[in-house]
Predict the 3D structure of the following.
Amino acid sequence: MGYVVSLLIPLAALLLRVTGQQPSPAGRHAATARAPEAPHSPASSKRQAEQRTSARSRPYAADSRTAAAPAPRPARIRDRDAFYRLAELSRHAGLWSFTYDHDALAPYTARHRVDPTIVFAASNVAGLEATLDMLDPPAMLRPYAAARSAPSPGDAARAAAERADLDQHARTEVAR
């Protein structure tokens, strides 16, 4: 019995779709149901035309008549295998972020990850790699090292007192 019911429900839905009839609404939608119209009647085509046109303006939508087609861009990066090896597999991959710009005269670009103000660009991959090989980028100064490198006025006095204590201790050990 369950098999027959599970077969009849999709069959009934298919018949309703093929014939174009919709089931009558039930519940709260029954009061707002419209009478179905013939698909090619003048009233339905008028309603469809009203639905297609919009009274509000759409500044975000480009006018298809005046919009110029964008200039075609090359589909591939020139020498992409060498660029991939430089960007992902070379020793520079950890410190540098690599990009490619189709429209630039020097399309291969490397930006230092620690200091983003350091940027190099080249017209070919070999030139960019040679530039990065010659460069010794500045090391990143750690925050705790910066705090230690600036001595306070009391540090010199403490260091002198510690040296004096160590000297006194060494003299007493030698005297024994």
Remarks:
- The chain has a mean pLDDT of 76.
- The helical segments are 2-19, 42-52, 80-89, 125-134, 143-149, 153-175.
- The chain is about 45% helix and 10% strand.
- The beta strands are 96-100, 108-112, 119-122.
